[in-house]
Amino acid sequence: MFDSEEFRLRSRNLLIVDDEPIQRTIIGRVAERLGWEVQEASSLVEAKARLRSGNIRTIVIDLCLGEEDGLALLHLLREVAPEVVVIFVSGAEKRVLAACSRVAKGMGLLVAGTLRKPIELRNLEMLLEIQPSRLASQKSSARAPTVAQFERALQNGEIYTAFQPTIDLSTGRLSGMEALARWRCPQRGEIPPSLFIPVAEQSGLITPLTRQVLREAIAACEACRYYEPEFSVAVNISPALLSNELFPSTIDRALAASQLPHGALVAEITESTIASDLPLANEVLTRLSIKGVRLSIDDFGTGHSSLLKLLRSPFTELKIDRSFVEVCPTDPEAWKIIHSVLSLAHELGMRVVAEGIEEREIGDQLRDAGCDIGQGWLFGRPVLRDTILRLLQSRAAARAAQSGGSQRPDVRAPVSARHQRLFDRRDVQLVDMNGPVRDQQLIE
Known about the structure:
Elements: H1 4-9, E1 13-17, H2 21-33, E2 37-41, H3 44-52, E3 58-62, E4 64-65, E5 68-69, H4 73-80, E6 85-90, H5 94-106, E7 110-116, H6 121-128, H7 135-140, H8 147-155, E8 159-168, E9 173-185, E10 189-191, H9 193-203, H10 206-224, E11 232-236, H11 247-256, E12 265-270, H12 271-275, H13 281-290, E13 294-300, H14 307-312, E14 317-320, H15 322-326, H16 332-347, E15 351-355, H17 360-369, E16 373-375, H18 385-403, H19 417-424, E17 430-432, E18 435-437
Parallel strand pairs: 1-2, 1-3, 3-6, 6-7, 9-11, 11-12, 12-13, 13-14, 14-15, 15-16
Antiparallel strand pairs: 4-5, 8-9, 8-16, 9-10, 17-18
């Protein structure tokens, strides 16, 4: 059985699998200069023997080994050395290297990156120092709550709504927010939505959960529009609710009890929901649109929906999935897809939101490419309503000062003391395109 502690204590052992002696020598000398112990293999048979002997931390694999290909090693890696870090080397096109990387990651292997021949030594040095983590597999091992536990959480007020800001990329203006259900369990701490949302959907508790999030989202947006008149809020709509012909009336009653105008509420529906041809879904979506709710396609690029289905549904917004945004710095194909999506959406009169933006360079490139709205940790993590209000108030005061006007009074909607304590325990920072928003900027 694999011993992770033993692996951690291993020396820096590198295995180079390449049928070209010169390439093995070049890579080996660079690695030795960085303190690695180098082993070499010129064929798959030799590489498999060295892997089975153990004590390898990183492996550099040439994809073309004569009549063999380096991908054949991946199955053995998964069986005998799943913690070994992989670096692919090849003279093939970048998209082939990127595809190999995706195959390895799909098998649960750790990939530091890819290198095209002729190898740039600086890039090789950088990849040799990368040690990818298994955060995704660690998260997947978390235990899902039971239906009874989630129902009690709803009744006891453990479920609350957090809001992640969205930014107009062309102006840097805070234009809206997405409402997100969160659960802080007294025993387990924060439980991720990926664990409790499926429980809510399967048990039918998604309806009261959505009602709660919708109610809090509408109230928060009303307060925010005092400072930003065009402010909007997005709420995720479960596929289960799109098969309920009474659901539009639920939203209609919630909007009627508020002062939100048409267009201020956005309903986000995943692309996979559109692709699944749920009964009544298109009718429900159309009725929501008639009632003034803007419709957004969430996670676009992951659901395999046809363009015809998108044309037949009354969507006004499209959200590019974070899986494309996150790989932009290393995958040129992702940028091509994003440019194509932007062109298609704008031709159809749709607004485009990019989610998962964590780096300023990516935010700038998306803005220059014509993306309308940005969302991600670069601009702010999910926070409680009062934090968004303080930020809007601070910006309104700054604009008033610049124009010589007076600051609007503080009319923040109240947040329960319990929820405020939950927020106080979080390490949260809001930033915008101009840099971090410091704590003192959030205080009136």
